[in-house]
């Protein structure tokens, strides 16, 4: 089953900015999904009262480096990791599962404060040669301290797992709350409030030369009415342009899809896709259609202007400062 499309959306005339034809686009995406070893479907549990399960296609792309010599997978991170701190916590219940492991709600015995602990199976990591990726996720998340970013509190290992202790987000994912809205979309004022907070987090990441590379509703959490970015599993920090293919298909920028060099503006593309999804209940680009942008008539001129500034080719894409000063966010 595909992502849910909003039911009665009519459209205004499309703006197509990318020169590749639709056929080329679907061919490239076909190759990407064939090349990735990933599970093509990710389920998201709808929080509807009737407890219906809703699926959406979440083809998440495994990291594919175009230069295999650049992959250094066997970095040993064990030496410096504190051990066995799990005994200080009471593990209460599983609250999620991600790319590498399971996430549990936990209580720190001493303070009775709640945390989320992401437990990552050491054998799985080793088998998939992803130790370096965990190392990067931990290093990046330790660096980031911002009200709209989930704080990494500590990192340790047990016999079988690496454990990331994270600030506990009380309100679930943005995807779950989106599914609860009428027509699975937010009103523009509500969406604007969310997008502004995500934009603040992106600004902080850019100031620290960090690219998240997988921004989407599933990786955005609610914590006491505030938005917090999470899951830095695909993040990188440096100023160089990159060409590794990773992320989630509906949110991939054209430069990434077409194998060009990219930079931190891919997070701004994702912000544009997120704005579209929050205000319409669906993502803007379907595999078969390429990057043709069509807006439902009910959207305001301001939000369309914001999205046009982001959902465009890298050269013309607006900056995070432009976004934060945009009238739709005021
Ligand atoms: P991740 O591995 O980061 O993608 O997390 C998988 C799932 O675990 C998320 O979709 C959330 O449902 C849940 N989760 C992750 N981090 C937290 C957190 N800090 N607080 C509450 N739930 C979380």
Shape: globular
CATH topology of the largest domain: Transferase(Phosphotransferase), domain 1
Tell me the radius of gyration. Answer: 20 Å
Strand order across the biggest sheet? Answer: 5-6-7-9-8
State the major sheet. 5 strands, antiparallel
Percentage of residues assigned to helices: 25-40%
Would you identify the regions where 5 or more consecutive residues have pLDDT less than 50? 1-16, 35-58, 62-76
Mean pLDDT: 81
Distance between the termini: 37 Å
Helical stretch tally: 9
The arrangement of helices and strands along the chain is: EHEEEEEEHHEEHHEEEEEHHEHH
Kindly give the count of domains: 2
Q: What structural category arises from helix and sheet content? A: alpha+beta
Protein name: Protein kinase domain-containing protein
Binding site for ATP: 99, 118, 167-169, 218-219, 231
Active site: 214 (proton acceptor)
GO molecular function: ATP binding; protein serine/threonine kinase activity
Please describe what this structure looks like:
The active site is at 214 (proton acceptor). It comes from Paramecium pentaurelia. Keywords: ATP-binding, Kinase, Nucleotide-binding, Serine/threonine-protein kinase, Transferase. This is Protein kinase domain-containing protein. With 330 residues, the protein is an alpha+beta fold. The chain has two domains: 10-67 and 171-329, Transferase(Phosphotransferase), domain 1 (Orthogonal Bundle); 77-167, Phosphorylase Kinase, domain 1. It is 29% helix and 22% strand. It has nine helices and 15 strands. It has helices at residues 22-35, 122-127, 131-143, 174-180, 188-207, 254-257, 265-280, 301-310, 320-324; strands at residues 15-16, 41-45, 53-57, 60-64, 89-97, 101-108, 113-121, 152-157, 161-167, 210-211, 220-223, 226-229, 236-237, 245-248, 292-293. It has a five-stranded antiparallel sheet. A two-stranded antiparallel ribbon has the order 1-15. The protein has a two-stranded antiparallel ribbon with strand order 2-3. A hairpin with a 3-residue loop joins strand 8 and strand 9 (161-167). Mean pLDDT is 81; it is low at 1-16, 35-58 and 62-76. The structure holds adenosine monophosphate (AMP). Adenosine monophosphate binds at residues 95-99, 103, 116, 118, 150, 166-169, 173, 218, 221, 230-231.
